[in-house]
Amino acid sequence: MADYRVETVRTGYRRWTARNERGAEVLMAAADDDGAQPSFTPVELLLAAMGGCGGLVIDRTARAVDHEELRIVVESVSGPEDDGRIGRVRVSYEFDLPEGNPKAAEVFARGVRLTHEKFCTVSRTVEHGARVEAVLPDGTIGFEG
C-alpha cells in the first residue's frame, strides 16, 4: 500500500489550498464564503475521495462490464446526535447495465462489494476508522485518537 503526503496551506481567512507532491491543487473554504467560491469544503473532499477511490477500484474489478457512463454520488447525512461527525454516508453507483450481458449485474455487484470490503482505502478507512495523531510545532503530540 502506498503512503501519501498532502500539504494544506492557508491562503486567506477560512481559505486553504491542498497540494500533493505531483503538483495538483484543490481549494477549500467554508460553503458560506461567497468570495472563496468555487471551492470544496473538507467534508465534500472526503466524499469526493470516497467516490474517486470507488471509481478507480470499479475500473479494475468490474472491467468486464462497460461502465463508461458510471456516475458515483456520495452523500452524507448528519444530525445533532452525531456530535460534529458524519452520521451516515450513502454511496450510489448510477448507470444503466449493458444489454446482452446476462452476468453484468453480478459482475458489477461483485466489483462494488470488493470496493468496500477490500480495495478502496478511503472507504475502508471511513468505515473502520483510523488512528489520528496531531503533532504540534515543537514536535509534541497535541492529540491522539
Automatic annotation (TrEMBL):
Highest taxon of source: Bacteria
InterPro entries for this protein: KH_dom-like_a/b, OsmC/Ohr_fam, OsmC/Ohrsf
Pfam assignment, any one: OsmC
Protein known as: Osmotically inducible protein C
Organism: Streptomyces termitum
Lineage summary: Bacteria, Bacillati, Actinomycetota, Actinomycetes, Kitasatosporales
